[in-house]
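Our preliminary data section would be incomplete without showing what the modeling component actually yields. Below, a chain of 479 amino acids is followed by its predicted structure, encoded as tokens that our downstream tools consume directly.
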Amino acid sequence: MKNSQKFYIVSVALVASLGGLLFGYDTAVIAGAEQSVQLYLVDSLGLGSLVHGLTVSSALAGCIIGALISGIIANSIGRRNTLIIAATLFALSALGSAYPELFFFTRGEPTLSLLITFNLYRILGGIGVGLASAIAPVYISEMSPQHIRGKLVVLYNMAVVFGQTVVYIVNWGIVRGQSSAWVDDTGWRLMFASELVPAALFFFLLLFIPETPRYLALKNEDTQAYNVLEKLQGSKEAASRTLSSIQDSLKTKTQKVNLFYYGKLVLVVGFTIAVLQQFIGINIILYYAPRIFESLGAGQSASMLQTILVGAIGVVVSLIAIRLIDRSGRKFLLLLGSAGCAICLFTVATLFFSGIYGVATLVFILGFVAFFQMTWGAVTWVMLSEIFPNKIRGQAMSLAVTLLWGANLTASATFPPLNAAFGVGSFMIYGAVSTFAFFFIWKFVPETKNKSLEEIEQIWFDKKSKSDQDKADRQAKSS
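Predicted structure:
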């Protein structure tokens, strides 16, 4: 691969990965602000832990909406333009969440209407996250040669983790040396407002990258698709072959192709991977890390520093994932992650129920973060971006990410009551999910490394053909 070609491919992947950075930034910024928001907008109104949980996770409702409509928008106006809409929503949400009193309310006078308005701004940002989380990996996957596709999509997940780490550092910098009263009055607002900077950068850089060749081919814009492929493939011959392969995959044997054309198994596998990633429980750590660490004996500043450590570990192990994803394969990493997460989660819960706190518990929480971010955190987005066939990718990816965010909302909203009842002993539940995930991956998920998107599509078509033949044989025998 020529240096200029590689530079071009990596550059467009990095720009799209900024959607992941904002995904991580927007969803994790609440970790530093949630206790101040609780004091200002929940406790002052005499509302309980359920409202607090819903407020912390309200952005996730927007994520569901964004993911649900992402396929329709991306197939109508393109992958790149969908990301531009997401960048705009990130900026609007950052401003509104930082100052929800803008236009209609008075600062320092919390009301139920203000609480609802704050949540609406968070939902707006969540819609941006839903759009970016569904489309950015698809954009990268459709722009990447098969031998480095895994690495480049992992860049997206690394950007998510990096965004979380950056906002943890920003949050810590805001509260460092400040009184709790100042943080509860002003600090939390600066945390939300800080998102304006990466949102503006994302919007600006998106103006300089092209639409994906597979989307262009889907819209019969073959000349533009060929021009993009020539830059990606490095030669006219390779561009022609790839374009021909894409066109063949879009020409199905039937006039009408519905979501189940390639069989139910591909949907079951993709949707289950999406849901399991969230029910394993990583976002419990990401959203409530300061609170969890404080419950284990750390002060406010120390808990913020430990939260930065969570993000830093995620960045480091994502670098490991980049090396392993196209070498060891997707399935191996998911199996490794399931086993490692289960062991760490069960150990944390056991230590808690045994009355053991401190360093030992922290080590296994960080071990869980490391296993997850190196495997499920990185691999899920790779699998979802490549596992669905070309013809249904937009719609299937939209549904998969909708389910992912629905699972995230469920897990995040239910953690405060579970934490109030069982403390980190509730990690036992997430350990059980990790155990189930191991056996599901082992039984149903195929390996996809070093395969083109069209070759992966053929796996599911062959499985469906075999299933249909087996069904026909059974019917023949019964008659």
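Residues 3-42 form the longest helix (40 residues). The chain has a mean pLDDT of 85. Preliminary results of this kind motivate Aim 1 of the renewal.
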